[in-house]
UniProtKB/TrEMBL annotation, chain A:
Keyword Cell inner membrane: no
Listed name of the protein: Ubiquitin thioesterase
Enzyme class, first EC level, given as a word: hydrolase
Pfam families: Peptidase_C65
InterPro entries for the chain: OTU_dom, Otubain, Papain-like_cys_pep_sf, Peptidase_C65_otubain, Peptidase_C65_otubain_sub1, Peptidase_C65_otubain_sub2
Similarity remark: Belongs to the peptidase C65 family.
Species whose genome carries this gene: Ceratodon purpureus
Automatic annotation (TrEMBL), chain B:
Domain UBC core: 16-162
GO molecular-function term, one example from the UniProt record: transferase activity
Gene3D superfamilies in UniProt: Ubiquitin Conjugating Enzyme
Superkingdom of the organism of origin: Eukaryota
Species per Swiss-Prot/TrEMBL record: Ceratodon purpureus (Fire moss)
InterPro entries documented for this protein: Ub_conjugating_enzyme (IPR050113), UBC (IPR000608), UBQ-conjugating_enzyme/RWD (IPR016135)
Record bears the keyword Ligase: no
Free-text function comment from the UniProt entry: Accepts the ubiquitin from the E1 complex and catalyzes its covalent attachment to other proteins.
Record key words, sorted: ATP-binding, Nucleotide-binding, Transferase, Ubl conjugation pathway
Coiled coil: none
Protein name: UBC core domain-containing protein
Amino acid sequence: MDTETGGEKERPRDDEIQAFHNQIRAADAEKLEFVGDKEPLSVLEDEYKAGSAVFLAKLQILKENYGSIRRARGDGNCFFRSFMFSYLEHLIVTQDEAEIARVEKSIEICKQTLIDLGHAEFTFEDFLGIFVEQLQSVIQGKETSISLDTLVERCRDQYVSNYVVMFFRFVTSGEIRRRAEFFEPFIQGMSNMSVVQFCRSSVEPMGEESDHVHITALSDALGVPVRVVYLDQSGDINDKPVTVNNHDFIPEGMDTSVDPYVILLYRPGHYDILYRRENPANVEPTILEQKN
Amino acid sequence: MSSSGYGQKEKVLSRIAANRLQKELTEWQVNAPCGFKHKVTDSLQRWIIEVHGAPNTLYEGEQFHLQVDFPEHYPMEAPQVIFMQVPPMHPHIYSNGHICLDILYDSWSPAMTVSSICISILSMLSSSTVKARPPDDDRYVRNCRNGRSPKETRWWFHDDKV
């Protein structure tokens, strides 16, 4: 243990450099909304104009299937914020009341899991309540109904957005601990921590980044399939053809041929929301008047 | 020394924070963590908690006081937790009452509660093998003289054994 209170400094330690890096990241993150506006995928081409050939080749492939992206703030919560918006947007567009009823049942099970693991209900009920409130407001024709614009506003609101992120962190941690035997090898493979330590240090605090373990746990616990599309440097431009890797996280018990509607674009260290070409969401907001 | 100089930027609790703290207090009253006693005051925002050193540890029979100040956005933000005078002699506790414990700072999670903080602090005390101040106590305390909150310190947590 040591403290840094000014003066008497030696060369920077690794954790110090990491802290500095985090500071820069936090300052950068402030410039962006929690979730941005929908933008055409071509904005990435501009961004990577001078970038690697592999990247640009993959972008071309991506454009065949996907039309737009919506950025999430890079503050370590981007997976959860992207998931939140993408899922709620899907519901507001499809008006899928059966899905809402289904996910509410999953939430009840998550709640029981947390209680079984020793969490007093008051420690998570505020977070859970905010998410359920959002779920219930996406169905149109009620006094509490919200438009897509309002959903965007809410997902940019610090209170709503952070409370939902924290609810997802509770759910993720609960699922990992409930199925500790299943998750243990993955966790040990990357961190050398016990399952409980991992949840305490890498899931439950805000701002801790997510990876496969988090996504698997949240997707399984809520029963929501998630596709992650990887835009990275892997592969060689001289090896034809360059391919873009996808990974579908399909909840236990769901048909593996299901087509996930929560689609995230992964670039090393960061998740954003990705949209299929000619996604019905493109023709907002008249679609909101129709019911499936 | 008075510890009331800390928590300068005190803002009133948000409605959600006040609500949540009320629930924590109610839960505490029926199910307080072993070895702790909440001293009743009229403030929801500042709790004073009596700590009893656990039996068969270096602190058996000793009694300390924690001062817990809650920020406007508790539990999204961590409370400020310090020992009031005289703090326990411990390699992670400074003579001004500041505590070097990761969950109070970088590793805080809104999933935690006052109870879980108390349990962590007692476990930190109980596992101590030596009654001593941190090696940099003088320097650290000198640098905090302007009433700086421990939440403004950049802490390094190298040793989670003690």
